[in-house]
Amino acid sequence: MSTLVTSLESQLAREMGDTDTNNLYYSSDQLFSALNDAILDFSEDAVSQEYTILGSGDAAYFSPDPTAEDQRLIVLYAALCLTDGEIQKASRTAYSHSNPAGRTSLEKIPEMLMRQAERIEAKIADALDSRSRVLVEEELDEAGVELKGKPTEAAEGLGITTIEKTV
Question: Are 81 and 38 a contacting pair, CB within 8 Å?
């Protein structure tokens, strides 16, 4: 069964902190657009699989069907797309205004959003590393290669693992 693009919208809204159903910040169209944009970035970074979106509107679905891990990555890439857009909007309206009632400052918002983007990028990097590790282990299993022994220290402090092929 194919995964509908709209099925990831609620996960994306939660990732962005948009959970107040009485007052949603992002529209369904914005979430859909971010997921669509995320596919390009994700497919570029995840060299083992390339995804596309087929169909349109509520019937749009991913091809091929993404795994749960890949769905999480697509949501994270979409969150990064939305956050980048928020950074651009906040940068255009960042100002500080003093008046008799006090001071209003919106100068820190772009910086705080950039920190959020860095946190999302770190989540993406962790998920991609985990995904790569699983893919390498699966490939080694298929080839009959087994990792043996404890890593030893190299001259520069990097671990060395002995790889032995079993029959």
Answer: yes
Gap between the Cα atoms of 20 and 99, Å rounded? 33
Q: Which residue has the tokens 């404890």?
A: 150
Residues 6 or more apart in contact with residue 73 via CB below 8 angstroms: 42, 46, 124, 127, 128, 131
* Domain boundaries, given as residue ranges, for the chain: 5-165
Query: For residues 37 and 5, is the Cβ–Cβ distance under 8 A?
Result: no
Sign for the CA dihedral angle at 52, 55, 56, 59 comes to negative
Higher pLDDT, 58 or 102: 58
State the Rg of the chain over Cα.
Answer: 22
pTM of the model: 0.72
Q: What angle do helix axes 109-143 and 68-92 make, rounded to 10 degrees?
A: 160
Only one residue has tokens 């891990």, namely 69
* Helix, strand or coil, per DSSP, at residue 103: strand
